[in-house]
Structures
1.
Amino acid sequence: MRTIVYTEPGSPDVLHLVDRDIPTPGPGEVRVRVVVSAVNPTDWKSRQNGTVEFPEVTPNQDGAGVVDALGDGVSTLEVGDRVWTYLSARNRPTGTAQEYTVLPAERVVKLPAGTSFDVGATMGVPAMTAHRALTVLEGGPDRLHAGALDGRVVLVAGGAGAVGHAAIQLARWAGATVITTISSDEKAELARRAGAHHVVNYRTEDTAAVVKAIAPDGVDIVVEVSIVQNADLDADVVGQRAVVSMYADDGGATAELAVRPNMSKNTRYQFVLLYTIGETAMRAAVEDVTEALIAGALPVGEAAGLPLVRFPLAETAAAHQAVQDSVTGKVLIDIGDTTSAG
Ligand SMILES: NC(=O)c1ccc[n+]([C@@H]2O[C@H](COP(=O)([O-])OP(=O)(O)OC[C@H]3O[C@@H](n4cnc5c(N)ncnc54)[C@H](OP(=O)(O)O)[C@@H]3O)[C@@H](O)[C@H]2O)c1
């Protein structure tokens, strides 16, 4: 089979297309014939800055495809099931940038009927991270479903980003009023298509004034991509006992928080890292995302606010570079036949 591997950290040039035997699933594992692999920032950051703990590593946490073989003891999936995968390369060398990957069964989730592989490949990192960010409000729901966030106001920083897009969609499906910040007219249009009720250009508008006019009692949940840049804004616009869910590390910078304004509102600051949210939150995200998929609430593509930027498997290095360069939209790698289930 064709697979992308790297044996040492570094620039996209360390990624090589090679031929390897099709792997055999062990007990509790399944083999997935990958149709679409997706690239997230974590994939290039791991490739560039991580340590390579296996003889060779195939990158990319997220993907979608078809179950092709089952290891002993797997009863939750069947050969031929259309699936999406998450944390495929977490503590394993088995990312999705290859024709077949072998994963623990719990990291392989059935796609609801009618849900495309493109949507499936976009669920892992972005949607599960957004789910966590939206379910840590004191007194708020720890599970999402239609109506779970009725009456709540959610501010999504960076609504044209991959996580921002998923956060808008999940919050909207769950009934929240959704405000988002963007930096251009093009991104504003994408965020509206994702379902944001209100879009604010943080470069050209007085963001705090606009948000406070929309939500005079304050925002309940901030899904925050840049706490370093937005700490003062967040402290200003949140309501009593709100939560600021911070999922990005600002390139390793240090954030400063104004103590008094936050203290007077009992603001909660919640760090979010998908890798370590724990099994309970992980299962909750998988189940709720599946419900949202069944409801048709998580479409992707330009018309849904998340343009798809596609590469063939042989150009995985270029796909990584595109994400590294902050391309707008979701970078996908086409690997297998999308029409056949076998
Ligand atoms: N903790 C976790 O588990 C986790 C999970 C997923 C992603 N992440 C991290 O989160 C970051 C985003 O990931 P992604 O896949 O969503 O990336 P992405 O698709 O590139 O989106 C990032 C978005 O943030 C916007 N942005 C940047 N600075 C902003 C600011 N000050 N205010 C508002 N928006 C701002 C960008 O647009 P403009 O620059 O045009 O505003 C862009 O739309 C990455 O650093 C990634 O590593 C962490």
2.
Amino acid sequence: MNLTVIGTGYVGLVSGTCFAEMGNNVTCIDVDKNKIDNLDQGIIPIYEPGLEAMVKRNVSNKTLSFSTKLSENLDKCDIAFIAVGTPMGDDGSADLKYVLQVAKEIGENMTTPLVVVDKSTVPVGTADKVKATIEKELEKRNVSIEFHVVSNPEFLKEGDAINDFMKPDRVVVGSDNEEASKKMTNLYTPFFRSTSNRLITMDVRSAEMTKYVANAMLATKISFMNEIANICELVGADVNKVRIGIGSDSRIGYSFIYPGSGYGGSCFPKDVKALKKTAQENGYNAQLIGAVEDVNDKQKLVIANKILSKFGNDLKGKKIAVWGLAFKPETDDMREAPAIYIIKKLVEHGAEVHAYDPKAMDEAQHFYLKDVPNVTYYNSKYETLKDADAMVLLTEWKEFRSPDFEELKSQMKNSIIFDGRNQYNEELLISKGFEYFQIGKS
Ligand SMILES: NC(=O)c1ccc[n+]([C@@H]2O[C@H](COP(=O)([O-])OP(=O)(O)OC[C@H]3O[C@@H](n4cnc5c(N)ncnc54)[C@H](O)[C@@H]3O)[C@@H](O)[C@H]2O)c1
């Protein structure tokens, strides 16, 4: 099939590349000329395991190409995917300006029948808006061309996006048209060759809602466990043991019940907010979803507050080594990362921060922490430790899992670790003479 994927970010680039890998002819479009120029030269704008090799292979096979011009890439297109950003608007709702801009351009330029797919995460009712926008442009041009708008929300995880896309747990397709559903089924069937068929079809509105509900459910599990961690700390229970105790119940399960420094990233924070807003717009006060967000906002600062309780409010002259900046391992994405909030708070209180992350240092230096003074970046985790008063672990990258604790002790001024991801063995650290602070353990 001939596919056009509009928006070449995490979702668009991964989807487009994986569709090409399955033998489709894919053109990925972006308004960011710099990004497209780089992609043309084989420079991948994001870090995602396995992506670079797959992009290069498909470019050389001529199944994948890049362009800034949507107008030149609709003529032979069977399916056009809208995969642009849907950032949080000022009032918490999803800002649809990029999605509707693309819809307008599609309406202005399409010449043959088309299936238009909303792959971006968009609130219920967006497909109707996309349809109306395209219709309006066709009317202006005084032409009648058949098109159908389908919802196909994306569930990939940054850091494991290629695996998720190539072997999906499920693909949700919301469509009110049989022909469009058939095209989508044909497109996705090859992805289920080695597994059972996991394509779930439904109406458009239910598909739009499914994406928000999935993210809100996962965010709820995280906030629930963080709240439990805070209670455990007050009553003298160990949340790490409680976690294992409840996870063994198959109705609960182990995933997404790790206590930590709160969720971040480009999706959960904005999607939870947008779902709350959608409920509100429809006259419903989504109390639980609001609480998930409130708990998370507070949780991001729990580890900073522990540091302040240990050293006092004045951190002048204190050096804090920070391991991990990305919102989770295997990505350079720092959107809404707890590290941003924690580092800002430490610096506000006078601390000097020595930071290292395997992939997210450029993002931090040039964007998210650009204006934050007193942060120095190092090329390795051990370099951050020299004369440090404490080490703070914020992202559970594999390279942080089993560090050489003797090296830590020899470099640091104080043998103190604040663990925002509860990944170390407390007994081991205490036996080595460390003071060890974690989430949910007094
Ligand atoms: N990042 C994830 O893990 C993830 C997972 C599932 C769903 N989503 C959803 O997918 C959507 C895209 O997310 P992302 O993380 O890939 O975003 P992103 O910000 O990484 O990329 C969006 C891209 O769209 C481009 N763009 C904007 N307007 C355009 C236009 N008019 N024409 C062409 N290109 C345009 C931007 O230049 C940018 O490169 C969002 O709705 C997001 O919520 C993201």
3.
Amino acid sequence: MSEKIQTIPIAKPWMGEAEAEAAKRPILAGWVTQGPEVAAFEQEFAAYVGAKYACAVSNCTTALHLALLAVGVQTGDEVITVSHSYIATANSIRYCGAIPVFVDIEPQTYNINPMLIEDVISDRTRAILVVHQIGMPCDLKAILEIAHRYNLPVIEDAACAIGSEILWDGQWEKIGKPHGDIACFSFHPRKIISTGDGGMLTAKNPEWDKQFRLWRQHGMSVPDTVRHGAKQVIFESYPMLGYNYRMTDIQAAVGREQLKRLPEIIERRRYLAQRYQEKLGDVPGLKLPTEPTWAKSNWQSFCVRLPEKCDQVQVMQAMLDTGISTRRGIMCAHREPAYSIEAWSCGIAQDTCDCQPGKCQRLTESEQAQERAIILPLFHDMTQQQQDRVVEVLKELCQV
Ligand SMILES: Cc1ncc(COP(=O)(O)O)c(C=O)c1O
């Protein structure tokens, strides 16, 4: 009888009875959206990251959209960001009618290279949108120094960085305080805690927080929580164009349970990441991710760069054939058909950048990371045997 291959997934949320029980609460209480669970989740999340204000929304893409609107990004503006990110980062800029201007990454951290930001600041630049890619904090100190000099707001795409930390004035602080102006988080199941889908905005400025609360609920002047509790008839109005970017109470109830698990999840992921480092450290040509001394990643993903002689697709296929799921390095938005528009797939005018389809001379590190890196399985209840299997198969493939 043939032995059934046990698949090792790329990621898997860590949830259980506690989350299932929590989801029951709003269902049985009858208040299932934008109610007390959402309010409690916001408070607990804010306390966890050390933020004054946190506003829950439907996902991180909608959070990014609202963050950009809040800092005043409008049609025709430019926003400096990375191409090397999930496409939602760049898409959120285009939702505002603005142009993403892409900057290359540092090859070791897969994060924006701060040294390249100043070169692309123009009189149309309205904001800088940085990403803490796959949980690794980007160099906020260097980025904020430039942003302050040019008086530009900084939005942090912290979709992947719940629980990641940065050394700030001698103290370890959670990403999302925020250190920039606004930070945006995701609770998609690929992230280290999940509400199915979901997002959170943390902001420095109370005015922005107020604005998010209006925008996320159609621009409605009196929230339904207030109307529900009112002793007199009140009518709401809609003074601005709003959106339906609400989080449900069912999601928030699950999120509150997930938050309780977070310290244990991070500890486990840091342990597994360290184990990958130890077990893969001696593979010739294989480049492992590095954590700067001022950063602590939550290791949302563990991304390795393959030796030159290895073909990315062949390695991924061979791993899949033995039941191990991997993913290619982070995508590059400028290489996608949705960005092959007019003259600006990389955001720079044609007379200063001669982009070819799918290739930009300014984004070579991003392109190489996409082509040469793979993401290995990493999830909370991954066993040592599963991890050893990944290591064994990858080592074999790197040594042929
Ligand atoms: C860096 C980054 N930004 C934004 C998003 C979008 O998050 P969501 O799916 O919650 O909209 C993702 C999701 O994978 C992401 O990885």
4.
Amino acid sequence: MFDFDKEIDRSNTMSLKWDKYKGQDVLPMWVADTDFRSPECVIEALGKRVEHGIFGYSRPSPRLIELIVNRLAERYGWQIDPSWLVFLPGVVPGLNLACRAWTAPGRGVITPKPVYYPFLLAPGINDRPLLNVPMVEQDGRWVLDLEELELQAAGADLLLLCHPHNPGGTAFTRDELLAIQAIAERHDLVVCSDEIHCDLILDKNVRHLPYGAISPEAADRCAVMMAPSKTFNIAGLCCSFAVIPNERLRFRLQQAMRGICADVNLLGFVAAEAAYEGGDSWLEAQLDYLRGNLALIEEAVARWPGVNLARHQATYLAWIDVAALGLDNPIAFFEQAGVGLSPGAQFGNGQFVRLNFGCTRATLREALDRMERAILAHQG
Ligand SMILES: Cc1ncc(COP(=O)(O)O)c(C=O)c1O
């Protein structure tokens, strides 16, 4: 019914991912969008709206708001009030606004490390000290070092959480979130939980749990940021939202947005509504396809001596430890082999590379073959 094997030429489509290696024989497996066509319902809704021909200022429809409220309740067990929603043109602007809105001058912003690199940049952009808490491998999963979090929390006003974690692939458990919340409570931290990858849980034994759903106390000190962008491959349409139960926090964010934060793009609203209305069977099929891709990566990594991938539960981004290969520049090495990965250094650990497997199985197979040949040749 859905054909994720179909190769679609993305050259000359203003694609950041594909333009990077234009004219070179390098498969782009870096920035986080997929090579899959969005669900037909999204494409149809956009076509219809474009046909209307008038693209003035816009606002979310009551139906979109209803769909989000229902989705959070049904899919994630979180009952929210529509008034808690704040629409944003992106989650990254949301992270930066969080630094502005919820911290005092001189007070730190905590992020995990490694983490999606805009987390590492947001505190500095907003003139706040960046405080890092390491992700540590525990029972094969990347989790936050809670002792370090407790130490850092004393100097901070805000924790930027990434759940599920990019690049580590961890979906945090209720107990893990409750432990973070206990620290946030003791040190009066606001928790901004970036849950943009929440629909992309690959581990069939795991259900995503929004930070705000773990307890009323957690809800009262958090913002949860979500979007249909990764889920339905519509990141270029720039529609995201924050769920902020606490009225004072919500007001402060809205104040910080005034005059500098763009409205959501009309077509972003249209795509979001269509995706949430009718895209979930496509999503389930995509998840199965991604599980197949992940299995292929796990098999390949198991063949590569010393190379490691921790238990990967969510996202289409694999965080691969290549320290054992002893490469000076892992990215240049794999580019030379014809595969364009994201540098681990950007996320906070240069011994890793991040591989985006939101692509056709054939592309992934070719990329893994190229990587394997290069690794074996390097190891002589
Ligand atoms: C954890 C995380 N947050 C945010 C984003 C980007 O969000 P946006 O495009 O809505 O700014 C990404 C994209 O890769 C991401 O992985």
